[in-house]
Design brief:
heterodimer, A: about 160 residues, mainly beta, OB fold (Dihydrolipoamide Acetyltransferase, E2P), five-stranded mixed β-sheet, 3 helices, about 45% strand, B: about 800 residues, Four Helix Bundle (Hemerythrin (Met), subunit A), 5 domains, six-stranded mixed β-sheet, 27 helices
């Protein structure tokens, strides 16, 4: 997706790293609006099952998605580390609930390999590449696709 | 992509020209009624002139050409050398419509140049006795338009300019659009265009300064349009041996010569550029021209037919569109590409400065109020008495309340626009439609200054168009028929708007044939909207309402029966979307009146906040009839079907949590509240846990991923930051009643249709009987023991698990058996 790769102009990509289960994931920083602690979530009946509800982000009502649910992972209790990453995709804001947010990393294009579905456990269309940082593998999510897709996405861990 | 500045200019242009066109449309209609009113003629002349100049300025040649020709016609009408007749009017309207088409092309980011105008410009030229232009570029659909006969003018680019423009073209100099319109303006004012050519002595050392001197002299006396070479840019002496100035002036040639009286100028030539004012007077139209006008009229009629067919088509596509909406993500995906191709029109609104000033004043008051609160907060640290602080806070708060209330009101008013902005297009529509149907119809507009929220008004145009078209098409009879009935040959359609309380009423009334109730009944039966059994004893009002049923308008031509129904369901859906409604009153043979009722604004709503378990919902107060505190045991239920006896009337009640699709957390015996909501004279009761009072809320839309919950209209943020979901009551009530009907049908084994009212009343009778029996026989027994069990067992359990049966349940089952028989 062109808007996700806009930072590649100088061969570098900045990613927000977060953890979900045992995996390390990254979202291009240009998609990330802010990172919030967990707050009150208002349930919206009949919403798609991975939508936890809506939150109040400075007067705006935005939907939040539990990424564990979205990826068919086991639900865990929210902890102090649980965070909501607010992303903006095509002028729409969403909150993504993740286990924890680690850091911002800069990866050189040479550190990124194009999708290897077998490594990520995710369908190729939902990832933007695999980053290698020291001995860690970072799955770079194509957040636009994930948000727009209605299909069940399952991560095979 | 258009850059920002250009876009800004474009936006300003569109806004300006639209306004001009709106007035022009109005005046053209006025002109048709009084073709010799000089005020109207003059105003049209001015309007067409402004449209021409504005569009020429931004380079829209087609629009400016059309406007220009219209202007030329009115220039003659103004001089009384041309009389307005129907042919001219039609040509003018056709040109007007084409301008609108060009504009919408511009708005859609298309090329204005691609719009073919030859077919509408030629009739105008014919009126002006000017030569026709060729049916231009082959890229446009020239084939289905009447081809103009031979023509020799070699304006290959297909654009048509005024005579003066072709004169200008013949000069060896290019004028920009701005300059051209400057020239035209000046000539209108009686000024003349001169070419001043002077030569500077060959041995002059400082030719440029000399030339500049001359230029300066002219500049001080007249308007210098252009210099060749361009004196503002070139400074090279070599280029200035011969200089041409194009000037606009009303002073004499002698005075002009004085301006050029500078040393070392050895030749001077001042020439007036004549625009050949010998424009012929078109007093009589040739047979050829009449034929052309007729062709035009036919094309117009075809357009109308096509338009109607398209609308029909659009309606037919509605269900698909609805289906598409069920897949919001898919919809979003398809929407994404191609976005940004259109020039996104920024929504702007014109606000009376007085209103803005009032708002500014209120903001001032708000700031003062803020400092008051800050003072109070300072005092708190000074350990002053609680009582005193309390009094002060109360005082400051009530002030804040007043200010914010007023701000809300004023702010709302800035969003208000007069309904006249959409009403103005209807006289034209009625005129054209009536003409094509050979009817004689007068449209009367009342209350066009009534103001209504901008978002509401945008959605109002389409329903009103439908209603008025229906009135003209099917409501009002033909003149002959009217005469036979002893009515005036001229039919009357009234479009009226007024405000009452926090609602806007818009009426469309005709003095036509009225609705044929038998016709509607037959139609409804035919389309399976209603069963014969249901029709028995149904009030007339409900029968009229069938014309809004989706199935009603599926048949293409209905004129033989009731005549109504074209897209009426669309009308209703549109209105309901805006939380409005529509009522019908009609009398056979005398006419029909549709009354649209709309809320003043859709964004700020007074709502009742209710608790359902942990969640808070907001119900717009406008639909709330009353609230009751009851014990759950007072609700009788069967399946999901629950009823409550409200002052001897049977009220269908439903657990709000069920309705919105939430899990039910229910205690056995608890006090609950029933919120009685009504929608179009139908009532249901919503069971909630608690009431939290009413509050003004600002409704915000939910993201598309959450749009599949039809019962939720949006969300609102409360003062404490909590989010409440706002219920869409109309959908909820309809869904509930549909469920009830379905349930009734499930029990209707004979298949001859069970009327909802019938089921409800039988149910009610049985409940009553049950109640009295219980009172008679079970009085001494422990009532409390029985009732909680009824309420506690959820419906499904009751049905499938006979163990939980009690006497009451048996009675309810009996009761349903009764209904079956």
């Amino acid at each position: 997706m062109s808007e996700n790769t806009s930072a590649t102009s100088n061969n570098e990509r900045q990613l927000i790293l977060f953890a979900l289960g045992k995996g390390n994931y990254g979202i291009p920083i240009e998609n990330v609006f802010e990172i919030k602690k967990m707050g009150e979530i208002t349930v919206v009946p009949k919403a798609p099952k991975y939508i936890e509800g809506v939150i109040n982000l400075r007067g705006n009502v935005i939907p939040v998605i539990d990424l564990r649910k979205r990826f068919g992972m086991e639900k865990i209790e929210y902890t102090k580390k649980t965070k909501t990453i607010i992303v903006e995709v095509k002028k729409r804001q969403f909150g993504l609930i993740v286990d924890s947010v680690a850091e911002v990393v800069t990866l050189n294009q040479s550190q990124i390999e194009l999708s290897l579905p077998t490594v990520s456990g995710l369908k190729a269309e939902f990832i933007n590449g695999i980053g290698k940082l020291e001995d860690k593998l970072i799955i770079i999510l194509d957040i636009t696709r994930i948000l727009q897709s209605e299909e069940d996405i399952v991560i095979e861990e | 992509m258009v850059d920002i500045d250009e876009r800004k200019i474009l936006e300003a242009f569109l806004e300006e020209v639209k306004e001009l066109l709106e007035t022009l449309n109005q005046r053209l209609l006025d002109l048709e009624n009084s073709p010799e009113d000089s005020d109207v003629i003059n105003e049209i002349f001015r309007l067409t002139h402004s449209i021409k100049s504005e569009s020429a300025l931004v380079g829209y040649k087609k629009i400016s050409t059309l406007a220009h020709k219209m202007e030329d016609i009115f220039e003659r009408v103004r001089r009384n050398v041309l009389l307005v007749n129907t042919e001219i009017m039609d040509a003018l309207f056709a040109a007007f419509d084409r301008i609108m088409k060009c504009l919408s092309a511009v708005e859609n980011g298309e090329n204005e140049e691609d719009v073919d105008i030859t077919d509408v410009v030629n009739p105008l030229l014919a009126i002006l006795d000017e030569e026709a232009v060729p049916a231009a570029s082959p890229t446009v659909k020239a084939s289905d338009l009447p081809q103009p006969e031979e023509d020799n003018s070699q304006q290959g680019d297909g654009t048509v300019m005024h005579v003066s423009m072709s004169t200008l073209k013949s000069l060896d100099v290019e004028f920009s659009e701005i300059e051209k319109s400057q020239i035209e303006d000046a000539i209108e004012k009686g000024e003349k265009l001169y070419k001043v050519l002077f030569h500077i002595e060959d041995d002059c050392d400082m030719k440029y300064p000399r030339a500049y001197l001359v230029f300066n002299n002219f500049e001080n006396t007249v308007t210098v349009l252009k210099t060749v070479p361009d004196i503002e840019k070139e400074t090279d002496d070599a280029k200035f041996s011969e200089v041409a100035l194009y000037i606009l002036s009303s002073v004499s040639v002698e005075d002009l010569k004085d301006c050029a009286d500078v040393d070392q100028i050895d030749r001077l030539d001042i020439k007036e550029i004549n625009f050949g004012g010998s424009v012929g007077v078109g007093d009589l139209l040739s047979a050829d021209e009449i034929q052309k006008a007729e062709e035009l009229e036919q094309a117009w009629a075809e357009d109308l037919v096509k338009q109607r067919m398209e609308e029909q088509l659009a309606e037919d596509n509605k269900p698909q569109a609805a289906a598409a909406q069920k897949a919001p993500a898919a919809k979003a995906a398809t929407k994404a590409p191609g976005a940004g191709e259109k020039i996104v029109q920024k929504q702007t609104i014109r606000v009376d400065t007085e209103r803005l000033d009032e708002l500014i004043n209120l903001v001032g008051e708000l700031i003062i109020n803020r400092s008051r609160f800050m003072q109070i907060s300072d005092k708190i640290t000074d350990s002053s008495s609680i009582q005193e602080l309390k009094a002060e806070i109360e005082d400051a708060t009530s002030e804040l309340e007043r200010i914010s209330d007023q701000m809300q009101m004023k702010m709302m008013q800035t969003r208000m626009v007069p309904v006249g902005t959409i009403f103005s297009k209807f006289p034209r529509m009625v005129r054209d439609l009536a003409n094509s149907l050979h009817k004689n119809i007068h449209l009367e507009i009342i209350g066009e200054n009534t103001e209504i929220d901008k978002t509401v008004i945008e959605h109002l145009a389409e329903p009103l168009t439908h209603l008025i078209r229906n009135s003209v098409d099917h409501g009002v009879e033909s003149p002959d028929e009217r005469e036979k009935k002893g009515k005036n040959r001229e039919g009357h359609v009234i479009l009226k708007a007024y405000q009452e309380g926090s609602n806007i009423y818009i009426e469309v009334e005709d003095d036509g044939n009225g609705l044929n109730i038998e016709g509607i009944k037959n139609k409804a039966l035919e389309n399976g909207i209603v069963t014969p059994a249901q029709l028995v004893g149904m009030p007339a009002q409900e029968i009229y309402d069938f014309i809004f049923a989706p199935g009603f308008s599926t048949k293409k031509e209905i004129s033989s029966v009731s005549g109504r129904g074209v897209g009426m369901d669309v009308v209703k859906t549109e209105l309901v979307k805006m939380r409005g409604r529509i009522d019908i009153s009609t009398k056979l043979g005398e006419g029909t009146k549709f009354t649209i009722v709309l809320p003043l604004t859709t964004t700020i709503v007074e709502a009742l906040l209710v608790n359902v378990d942990e969640n808070i919902f907001a119900i717009p107060i406008s639909v709330v009839e009353e609230t009751l505190k009851i014990n759950r045991s007072e609700i009788k239920e069967f399946d999901d079907y629950q009823v409550y006896n409200l002052r001897n009337e049977t009220l269908a009640v439903i657990q709000l949590s069920d309705l919105v699709g939430m899990e039910r957390v229910r205690k056995d015996d608890e006090d609950v509240y029933i919120v009685v909501v009504s929608f179009e004279k139908r009532r249901i009761g919503l069971i909630v846990n608690n009431l939290m009072g009413d509050q003004d809320i600002v409704i915000k839309g939910l993201d598309d991923v959450l749009k599949n919950n039809e019962g939720v209209a949006g969300a609102a943020v409360l003062g404490d930051g909590r989010i409440v979901l706002v219920l869409d009551t109309s959908t909820l009530v309809n869904a509930t009643l549909k469920e009830i009907n379905k349930l009734a049908h499930d029990y209707d084994l004979n298949g001859d249709g069970v009327d909802e009212a019938f089921t409800l009343s039988s149910l009610y009778d049985n409940l009553n009987r049950m109640e009295s029996e219980k009172n008679d026989t079970e009085k001494p027994e422990d009532k409390k023991e029985v009732e909680p069990e009824v309420t506690d067992s959820s419906s499904n359990v009751k049905k499938e698990d006979p163990a939980s049966d009690d006497e009451n349940l048996k009675k309810i089952t009996d009761m349903f058996n009764d209904i079956r028989e």
